[in-house]
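Inputs:
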Amino acid sequence: EIVLTQSPGTLSLSPGERATLSCRASQSVSSSYLAWCQQKPGQAPRLLIYGASSRATGIPDRFSGSGSGTDFTLTISRLEPEDFAVYYCQQYSSSPYTFGQGTKLEIK
Amino acid sequence: QVQLVQSGAEVKRPGASVKVSCKASGYTLTRYPMHWLRQAPGQGLEWMGTINPSGGSTSYAQKFQGRVTMTRDTSTSTVYMELSSLRSEDTAVYYCARDKGWNYHYFDYWGQGTLVTVSS
């Protein structure tokens, strides 16, 4: 089973700032089969990024993903108030499909 | 538009079973695999398994083998997840989520979630 470790656990930033979230895998994620999703309190997750760097339909271009192998990054270029949420990475390279423990992005 | 609407919250005793439904609309159920995931209170997301709504074949995470059953009813565009031998650790919000496509295994649409509480 591929274990995903996200850092930091909590990130405190202000609107307008840049956010950089990390996801590290315990073994290589083949073909960059890594996704990122966003979850707000009381809501279901929402797909942001798939294939490590492709934005899902309707996702603003301030969200970008990068990385390969075992190290992946989600960057939010300029934070909007609606971006403060929990972010999860997910690998779909091999079953079971696993998630990181999440990074909480909070308003500073 | 694609929608996945799940059944309502459940309270169950330890040892009981629960069956959660997920009704799909806005697309043809049989054209996309469906997955079930869960999220314990204050915790992260956990994948439970998937069903091919076309033929009914399933694949379950080893952790849930023997306790979970996923089925579908194509006439009503509904998929079901039944979890048996419930224990307190199964208290969680259960989600259905549509696969992006065949052999993708990431999730482009999610149901609203169903809270299952296991308590004596």
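Chain B touches chain A through 21 residues (CB under 8 Å). Flag for discussion at group meeting.
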